[in-house]
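May I ask for a protein sequence together with how it folds?
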Amino acid sequence: TPDGFPEDESVSNRVQGSIEHTVTIPEDTVEGGASVSLTLTPGFVSEAVQGMDALFNEPTGCFEQTTSSAWPNTVVTGYLEDTNQLTPELREKAIGLVTRGYQRLLTFESPTGGFNWWGDSALGNRILSAIFLWHLKDMETLIETDEAVKERTLNWLLSQQQADGSWDSGDALHSGNEVLGTTKVRTTSFIAWALAHTDWADDEVSRAGDWLAANQPPADDLYANALAMNALAKIDPNSIAAS
């Protein structure tokens, strides 16, 4: 502040019986410039989620940038809703952000089918379309969504699936140096994982799972193995491949 420097002190402890703590306020503290806050939580979990509303951000930018804020908004809102922590004021803020994120994401639909980075005439991107559907599943219990957009995107993505159950590699994220779409295993794993989360394409997801079980990546490709195992575990937690 203009005529001084802020000094913060914090202490934490577990209350068993009574706790005493002395707060020392510097002698040269600006009059009216000192404050003390006391926060009591019933356990570590409550402490960890305290202030989750600070994670809310206004969605902006391209598809990926919008998703990077809109999806956390959705997840946090869903958690606060499930745990009965949404006050009327916080609900208005949270649902508003989720709604604006969804409306912004709709602008990135490609006229060729699916979603791309800017919603222009560029071809739809399978990875981005899978991300949209995954996120959409998380949104649908919070806000009203357009069933026609869901069906269009889902049908387009399923039309890209090969006869053997896989999806071809080739689609990248915006900066072009990512690893999600660089191999068929990675691409198929991510899309199958996303679709398994939605429960909207059981037959296609099952075929993708069969392909992944029969085409596991090299042992030294840790990222591909992680994607494949997550996908298989989501598709069938009891599968031999996932275990």
Summary: The mean pLDDT is 91. The radius of gyration is 24 Å.
